[in-house]
Amino acid sequence: MDSSIVFSPLISEILLIIGVIILICATGFAAWRGLSGWFLRALAGGVILCALANPVVRYEERDPLSDIVFLVEDASESQKISDRPEQVATALAGLREKIGNLENFELREVRIENDISQDETGSLVLTALANAASKVAQNRIAGAIIISDGRIHDAEILQTFAAPVHILQTGKSTDWDRRIVVTNAPAFAIVDEEITLNLRIENDGAVPVSESELANLTITIDGEVQSQFQVRTDADLELPITLTHGGMNVLQFTIAADETELTDRNNSAVVTINGVRDRLRVLLVSGEPYAGGRTWRNLLKSDSAVDLVHFTILRSAEKSNNVPVRELSLIAFPTRELFLDKIDDFDLIIFDKYRRRGMLRPAYLRNVVEYTKNGGAVLFATGPDFAGVNSLFRSDIAEILPAVPSFDVINQGYKPQISQTGHRHPVTQGLENWAGDLAPENDPNWGRWFRLLDTNVRSGHMVMHGFDEKPLLVLDRVGEGRVAMLMSDQAWLWSRGFEGGGPQLELLRRLAHWMMKEPELEEEQLSAQVDGQQVFITRRSLSESIQAPDITYPDGETETLELRETSPGRWTARINAEQNGLFELSDGELKAVFAVGPAAPIEFEKTIADASLLRPLILETSAGVIRAQDVAVPNLRLIRAGRSGAGENWFGLTPRNAYLTLDVRQTPMLPGWVWLLMAATLIVWAWRREGR
């Protein structure tokens, strides 16, 4: 039970103040005039004013509250390296015991861990402390002790605190670390053109004198080692890189780890660069003017990334007017330049209804064969002339053709259909749903064609067939290159909307991109798409079954994935990546790599213990910093607010003596009649004295 005297005025405080002023003035005037009873009148006025102020005795019943100490454990990734876990465990056990021995003190523990799905946020130590402190009354907080390496990422969150905030700093003064930082890397790069990446290898901490200024750097692209060399540390480096294929390229830069450095988690950097082709170069040679020639031209010209060179033979062999060919041409046909000097500059060559006319010498056609074997792409859109005596099949070109013509042309209406293999091939997969019409399988709602070259497939894959299931579209690989044969010259009927048309533009677009080796149209493909921590793995194949791929995690562990066939030729799986870094996929034949998050999270950008980021808060709250290496468990002292809160081996806590009021009672100091009697007595006394 605590008691105190308080005032509960019977009139307003303003009137009381006015009364005090009047009393002082009147008393002063009476004293100045020398009235004999002025002091008695002053006492009477004072008694009356005290009665009006109504002093009372307040009795409070209080329940003392404990003082709260926050013990904040930084359990982020950087606290798990070297011997820091042991330092943290020792400090936690010792401080729990010492705080528990303090009378009327309560311990509140706060633990901060990294959320791997939001790893870029780093160590939010002060955010966690502020949230914990907001849940209690500020007048109960006696202090906070943070066990951390000081590498926090929210130093601006907490500018002040109700009590001292001490830091028990983990780590050792002899720690050192080496890390690799990519300072500049493009998101896109042109295939087969050199780009420059900027990176830097930094040493931090107490670097041993014996450590060389050179570091061994290894560069891998899509999991394959490209180069290894020595580079200088603490210097900006410019590395020339050349991408060899389109699509995503995963580049990893790794420096050899030293057994004495703090961690090797920041010895790698992963960069993903999208490889794009610069102006795909296409050569289109049309054997004669016809409606389909415009279709090919419109398709290729509609793509701004395509440089098209188009030549059309204007005069057929059966039309003779005794005019030299060179005089009929709009420009001279540069056969030597195109098929001898610059043939390797083209990404795709299309022969559209072309037949031998003596314009292309056998040596030029032989160059086309070698061009294909060395990685080029050739598309043959055949017509009736392919079955004649001037057919390209009667030249060296026959070596790379996947189908052999029977020299018979079928002139009968038919609907092009996708073959069983075609339903699995990315060029034709899903075309049966063209224009949103969900037609039955193998019966797409397409318009008819009326011409088909009769052929027999000898290699490659037949992805579409026509009349009587005869080959219509055959795709093949020859050496490093690709060849496609379209056994009809009437694809243009679809573009005209005949009998409803068909997916002509989509088919030809896919066909052209497959021949130019676009990664998304590879028929045998193992790929991964990363969305945050979710990874979608896709395996495409023309086979009925596949080998389950193995996935290698960044920590070296390997697991076999179970894929599910979601559509013909397409198997998928979804995993939740619980690690950041470089992952590898392999099924024995195909290999793919992908990166989840940064190779070295923000926690490992700086690993040497340093409490400088917390220095402003420490100074503001009169707290201190002690290294766990020097004092494993600091002593605790009780100090008054405003005093220095730390020493070489101790932290100070401020007792707050907070309490909870349970009951309040008030009693007047004197009864009203006593005040009245006192005032009347003084007034009568003053009257008698003055009357005498």
Automatic annotation (TrEMBL):
Keyword annotations from UniProtKB, A to Z: Membrane, Transmembrane, Transmembrane helix
Ranges that cross the membrane: 6-31, 38-57, 670-687
InterPro entries: Class_I_gatase-like
PANTHER family referenced in this protein's UniProt entry, alphabetically: BLL2462 PROTEIN
Name the record gives this protein: Membrane protein
Source organism (scientific name): Paramylibacter ulvae
Organism ancestry: Bacteria, Pseudomonadati, Pseudomonadota, Alphaproteobacteria, Rhodobacterales
